[in-house]
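Box S2. Input/output pair 1.
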Amino acid sequence: MQDKILYEYAVIRVFPKVEREEFINAGILIYSKQAKKLLVKTYFNEKKFHAFETELDEEQVRLNLKSFELIAMADPNGGPIAKMDMPSRFRWMTAVRSSCIQTSRPHPGFADDLEKTLDRLFEELVL
């Protein structure tokens, strides 16, 4: 019998107007020290985004969401944060901030398969 994999996850959120504290769930981050994995899946919901009054530039928001993917993959195009070790990248992405893209606090869980868990959380919380 295979042991369950301990992981942490956070929801990536877009805040069209930060001061109103309204947000759109736009992705999921999963980190597992045990499995040595950092996974991310994002989705920009254009319809929800345009339902809010916002001064945000849509293309910039899309690029910022893409940067989460680049950082998670340690892609050199992800900038200096992408060069950090995996735990540091996850902690940086989930740090409390007051910008237009934020994450929820990390939540713990156990899984048999991290990729399937990512897909399930993405379906439940983002789509």
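Box S3. Input/output pair 2.
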Amino acid sequence: MRGASVAAFLATILWAGAGEAEPAGAPLYREHCLTCHQADGYGVPFQQPALAESEIVLGDAKALIQYVLAGTEFSEPGTSDWGNVMPGFPQLSDRELGAVLTYIRQSFGNTADAVSEQDVRGARER
């Protein structure tokens, strides 16, 4: 196993060992976010930002939804402190995006409100 695969495997074992049901967004996080933002949500230094204690993650859910849908691929060069760009995730369903954003907003020490499927649908319609 390599990097992200090992981390995803270990995260699955930890959830199973905790005796709790795994949050719906956890598998989506492992599939789409873990490689860059890491199992602890602190990202790769100088490459990807931390999701833990992030103003973007903890702030307005509608802005976060738009950010994740669009990604940073088309940001103006030099406007980021991070070495890598984040792709947009418009291919995720409203339910999937709500689940993974809820997971991010309620993991890594974060305590923000959940993001519903309806929240995502409304943001897409804008």
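Caption for Box S3: The chain has seven helices and no strands. The chain has one domain: 3-125.
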